[in-house]
Amino acid sequence: MVIARSCSLTAVADVLAPLMGQSYNTLRERLRDTYREAAAKAGKQRVELDVTESWAPWLAWLLDGWSGQQMAIAMNATSLGGRFVVLAISVVYRGCAVPVAWKVLKAGEKHAWKPEWQALLKRFKGLLPEGWTVIVLADRGLYAKWLFEAIVELKWHPFLRVNSQGTFRREGWYHWKPFSYWVPAKGCRWQGRGTAFKGKKSQLRCTLLGYWGEEHQDPWLVLTDLAPECADACWYGLRAWIEQGFKHSKRSGWQWQHTRMDDPARAERLWMAIAIATWWLLSVGGEAEAQVDEPLDIKEPSVPGAVRRRGKRWRIVGIFQHGWSLIIAALLNHQLLPVKPGRPEAWPRMPDSYEKSLAASGVGGGG
Question: Which run of H or of E encompasses 147?
């Protein structure tokens, strides 16, 4: 897949057949068996890959040698035209993301997402050792009280964005206030403990993190179980990295948009190969980026979005692309293929000016 820059069975078989000195058709059929169900295979000892049993060891492999004990996970859905909808849980990493659990559904068919998300999350119960801090980020379309509680049950920390139409009662207060009360204008920030939503069934004891950046059309209103002094609204910005992960599975990476598959179960097995190949590139590119100590000598671009900010530096080339370049260079130079552990960036923080204004206002940590 890395050499072909594609997850297409045809493209991969076309590269491997001459390299291995095998028949193209024979090799293609052997590769097809990796995602076929047992009944579709020849032979008496037919088995099929159960990807749900792969997620726990896959996450353990991904975290082998991981730097630090912090991890951010994003949940979101992506579609492939009118063919598939994928519910994905991904580890976000240096501006990108790698899937660690997923469910592929047929597009256009009514299907309840709640049991699918619950089943995906349950696979991670008790997997991480004590002492790890894991935040789980999701956009407004996925918010639900049951999701918040399911994440807490894993001893992870929800970071769920909500719409501004709700209400929040600060700890020690009697009256409810709309979410907009706490961050009424751009440049405002507030965080504190209390209860979100008035309805008896929807009420949730939590921390509200509110921030309205100058560049944002709407405020970020995030609910978490973390104490106000232990969380930062700007961490929610990590959620956007999962979109880059989806992008790499398609046009900017493995070209999954060209698939002719129509069976969701087979697509789920193919995604295992996509996940492994993605992490190989990200880990190699991320390690190279982590070794860069000197800031890049470059002016900030005049066009927003021209390059992505990385701390005090600018990321000119994404780690997915750079990882691919390093692997191909090793192949061409007859060197050992690079295999690297995860080296995540430190989680972002608000500018010092916001920290000082928050402390001076007396809101936040006390709730």
Answer: helix 145-153
Can you tell me the distance from the alpha carbon of 141 to that of 289, in angstroms, rounded to the nearest whole number?
Answer: 33
Give the CA count within 13 Å in the CB-facing half-sphere of 355.
9
The token pair at 328 is 């191909």
What pLDDT was estimated at residue 40? 81
| Neighbour tally for 26: CB within 10 Å | 11
CA atoms within 13 A on the CB side of 192: 22
Q: In one letter, which amino acid is 55?
A: W
H helix or E strand, kind and range, residue 314 = strand 313-315
Question: Is-contact 267 230, C-beta < 8 A?
Answer: no
| 54-292+314-367: CATH, from 3.90.350, 2.40.50, 2.160.20, 2.60.40 | 3.90.350
Spans of all domains in the chain: 54-292+314-367
pTM: 0.89
Distance CA 137, CA 348 (A): 14
DSSP class of residue 341 equals -
> Which phi and psi angles does 271 have, rounded to 5°?
-65, -25
CB 17 within 8 A of CB 27: yes
Structure token pair of residue 31: 């590769």
Name residues of the chain where pLDDT drops below 70: 293-314, 349-367
Output the CA–CA distances (angstroms, integers) from residue 59 to 65, 128, 165, 216, 282, in the order listed.
12, 9, 37, 34, 15
Non-local (6+) Cβ contacts of 214 within 8 A are 186, 187
Q: Phi and psi (nearest 5°) for 249?
A: -70, -20
